[in-house]
Amino acid sequence: MKVLVSDPIAKEAIELLKTSGIEIVEKTGMSPDELAKVIPEFDGIIVRSATKVTKDVIEAAKNLKVIGRAGVGLDNVDREAAKVKNIKVVNTPAATSISVAELAMGMMFSAARRIPQATFSTKAGKWEKKQFKGFELFGKTLGIIGIGRIGTELAKRAKANGMSVIAYDPYVKESEHAKVVDFDTLLNESDYISLHIPKTDETTHILNKAAFDKMKEGVVIINCARGGVVDEDALYDAIKSGKVRIAAMDVYEVEPAKEHKLFGLDQVIVTPHIGAQTAEGQTRAGVQVAELVRDALKQ
């Protein structure tokens, strides 16, 4: 059996596959056209988010039995094309839950105490102590949109910091770690709102102008989920109006996001889609996907 690893994964994952008797070829940075040319010789492929396993790639595959995604989202894999050819698609939805939840929690602390802004100011030789009066998270209400694995991990951490946690999720009736409420209640009552949902037709622009209008004045928005679940134009207007005090974003409608009008606002904290980028999370994701691919090829 021969597996192509087209995005970097943990060395522990590579070793696991090799010791299972699987031949590994590591070749990263390929375009879909380049991938389509080499894929016929492989029985499996492992990707992260960079490689696009398109319909053309899948149709070019002659021996492909499994596509492994080291991570949560499958936006970069054409699952319908894979289904037509009876190719198994596997991923690791739980591997980086803690990593993403911790980033969201860090965003909340950064927003409450304006840590990035204070860092830039102090490094610029200023001493603007009075300008950086912040807020405590203790006693505030966190509204989580999507109380799945990541949302639950965030809820645990927020409650440990003395926050009240409510959640909206049309697929969850109750949660051990949050009070499940309807969407409008979450918008009306939350001091902080954090999104932990995939981007679908149902969730695209779930936070739009109408949603922002229902929120508290000075609400904080955290998006470590997927670009497109927040209407970025509506968010910009909500920040400019003062409705949103601070927004912290790790994902964007268009990525890589090298230029964006939100970047010009001091009230916006940004990172380059690093939610899953921890050593521990990537090791878990790599090892778990390697196990899934190995098992699929043994069937």
From TrEMBL:
Determine the domain of life of the protein's source. Answer: Bacteria
Recorded hits in Pfam families, A to Z, give: 2-Hacid_dh (PF00389), 2-Hacid_dh_C (PF02826)
Q: Which UniProt keywords apply?
A: Amino-acid biosynthesis, NAD, Oxidoreductase
Q: Which residues form a coiled coil?
A: none
Query: Is Amino-acid biosynthesis there in the keyword field?
Result: yes
Annotated GO molecular function terms are: NAD binding; oxidoreductase activity, acting on the CH-OH group of donors, NAD or NADP as acceptor
Domain D-isomer specific 2-hydroxyacid dehydrogenase NAD-binding, which positions?
105-275
> Some GO term, biological process aspect, for this entry: which one?
amino acid biosynthetic process
- Would you identify the family this protein belongs to, as annotated? Belongs to the D-isomer specific 2-hydroxyacid dehydrogenase family.
Task: State what protein this is by name.
Answer: 3-phosphoglycerate dehydrogenase
Organism, by scientific name, is candidate division WOR_3 bacterium SM23_42
> What does UniProt list as this organism's lineage?
Bacteria, Bacteria division WOR-3
